[in-house]
Every structure is written in structure tokens, then in C-alpha cells.
């Protein structure tokens, strides 16, 4: 699966401008790209106090624009996450669109990050699952979720061999991000495809370092700190092979823990 990751400099509080950037990027991808991946909160960044003025529905403008591109370009889009209205609250929602333009999965971030004031402004989701893209089982988590090994482990136990991590992870703690991405890949023997943002929002600088990590923990490709595109060709069989060679998931002592 030829995968392209957009380490995007999100323009804070400018959903229309960001949609234009994303559409231009998607339309420039090589025709043989199978999956395009976007970062967390790519429509607004962390302008949480302004969401009521910026967001008036469930992200229909952004999502329908991406559905059209997916259909026209026959491209799967792991559409990062966007701030959406949910009742009278807001959620941090990831959406996955297949090559036919169908929304096949959405996920509302379940672990809200106190360091960026999410609990004050957002409502947490309360469910997650695996999904299938091109017949392969995949999982997706959002940024702070990476610190909770249980969620990635559950996705791996449910059969995910590729897990996408969409993020706006600050530079200040970027060493945690890179270490945890490798740990999650090694302990679950799956590909980790991580898409972080670059640039800044208010006082927060985002740290980039988007990467694709193999099921044995090798960094196949990584970005630096600035806006960039990274690409990798993902061979799902590698995950199956390493799970057979070192049967971590089977060796677990579920009678003890
Ligand atoms: N956007 C996020 O969830 C940031 C997470 C973070 O800053 C951290 O875990 O540290």
C-alpha cells in the first residue's frame, strides 16, 4: 500500500484555507498512491476557544470535499481529525474515507489532553474499533491516545496490522512521541503510520517527526520539523511474518493480567 503522509502546517482558526491546502496536496499526489494521511485538527488547529465561531456543523464541508477527491482519484483518505459540532458540544473527530468516497469509519478522540485544554472545550468519544481499507484491517488513534498502550493493544488483538496515529504533538515533548511510536510498533508488531503537524498555534510549537515504523520497530521514513510529505510502501505480510516468528500476542498471560 503506497502511503503518503502530510505533515502539514495548519493555519490556526482558518478552516477554509486549510481545506484548500489539503485539497491541493491530495490532488498533487502521484496516481499510484493508495492511502493519504492527514494530521489531527487540520481544519482549525488548537483554537479551541474560537470553535463556536468557526464550526457550525459536523464537518460536512470538509468531509464532502474529501469524499469527492477520494472518489475522483480512487484514493483512500485517512482524513486526520477535525473539530466537529456534536449536539451543543465539540468533538475531535477522525474520519476514514475509502476509494469510492464512502465514509467507512469515524472515531471521536477518547483521551482528551489536559495539557492543551481539551477537557475544558471538547467532549470525549466513547468507542473505537478496527476498520478495513482495501481488505486490510487497520486501526486509528489520535495523538494523546498514544500514551495509553491499552487502546493500541486492543486494536492489534482485533487484527489491525496498520495503526494510524494522527497528531498535533508539541515540540516540547517530541521525544515522547518518537519513542512511543516505536514502542507501539514493536509491542504490537504492526506498522505505525504517524502524521504530526508542523508550525504553531498560539504558544504551542508542533514538533513534526511524522514517521512510518515497521512491525519490527525500524523507522522506514521520517520527516523533520517543517511541513513535508513522507511516503512509504507498506507490505502487510511483514506484520504477519513477525507475529509468527515472535508470537507476542499469543504469549500473553491473560490469566495473570
Ligand atoms: N494533541 C495532543 O493530543 C497532544 C498530546 C500531548 O501533548 C502529549 O501527550 O504530551
TrEMBL record:
One Pfam family recorded for the sequence? CN_hydrolase
Q: Does the keyword Hydrolase apply?
A: yes
Q: Which CDD domains match?
A: nitrilase_5
Q: Which domain of life is it from?
A: Bacteria
Could you cite one Gene Ontology molecular function of this protein?
Answer: hydrolase activity
What range(s) does the CN hydrolase domain occupy? 1-236
The record's InterPro entries line, in alphabetical order, gives: C-N_Hydrolase (IPR003010), C-N_Hydrolase_sf (IPR036526), UPF0012_CS (IPR001110)
Q: Does the keyword Kinase apply?
A: no
Keyword list (alphabetical) reads: Hydrolase
Give the family, as the similarity comment puts it: Belongs to the carbon-nitrogen hydrolase superfamily. NIT1/NIT2 family.
What PANTHER family does the record point to? DEAMINATED GLUTATHIONE AMIDASE, NITRILASE-RELATED
Q: What is this protein called?
A: Carbon-nitrogen family hydrolase
Organismal lineage: Bacteria, Bacillati, Bacillota, Bacilli, Bacillales
Amino acid at each position: 500500500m503506497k502511503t503518503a503522509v502530510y505533515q502539514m502546517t495548519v493555519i490556526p482558526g482558518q478552516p477554509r484555507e486549510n481545506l484548500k491546502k489539503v485539497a491541493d496536496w491530495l490532488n498533487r499526489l502521484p496516481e499510484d498512491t493508495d492511502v493519504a494521511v492527514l494530521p489531527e485538527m487540520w481544519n482549525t488547529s488548537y483554537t479551541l476557544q474560537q470553535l463556536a465561531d468557526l464550526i457550525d456543523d459536523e464537518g460536512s464541508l470538509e468531509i464532502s470535499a474529501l469524499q469527492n477527491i477520494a472518489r475522483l482519484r480512487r484514493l483512500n483518505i485517512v482524513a486526520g481529525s477535525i473539530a466537529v459540532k456534536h449536539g451543543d458540544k465539540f468533538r475531535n473527530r477522525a474520519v476514514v474515507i475509502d476509494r469510492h468516497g464512502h465514509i467507512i469509519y469515524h472515531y471521536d478522540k477518547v483521551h482528551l489532553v489536559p495539557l492543551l485544554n481539551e477537557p475544558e472545550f471538547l467532549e470525549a468519544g466513547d468507542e473505537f474499533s478496527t476498520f478495513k481499507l482495501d481488505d486490510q484491517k487497520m486501526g486509528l488513534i489520535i495523538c494523546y491516545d498514544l500514551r495509553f498502550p491499552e487502546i493500541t493493544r486492543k486494536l492489534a488483538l482485533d487484527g489491525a496490522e496498520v495503526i494510524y496515529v494522527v497528531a498535533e504533538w508539541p515540540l516540547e515533548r517530541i521525544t515522547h512521541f518518537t519513542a512511543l511510536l516505536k514502542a507501539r510498533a514493536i509491542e504490537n508488531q504492526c506498522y505505525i503510520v504517524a502524521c504530526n503537524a508542523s508550525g504553531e498555534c498560539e504558544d504551542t510549537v508542533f514538533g513534526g517527526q511524522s514517521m512510518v515504523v515497521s512491525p519490527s520497530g525500524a523507522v522506514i521514513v521520517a520527516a523533520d520539523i517543517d511541513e513535508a510529505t513522507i511516503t512509504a510502501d507498506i507490505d502487510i505480510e511483514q506484520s504477519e511474518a513477525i507475529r509468527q516468528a515472535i508470537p507476542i500476542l499469543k504469549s500473553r498471560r491473560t490469566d495473570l493480567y
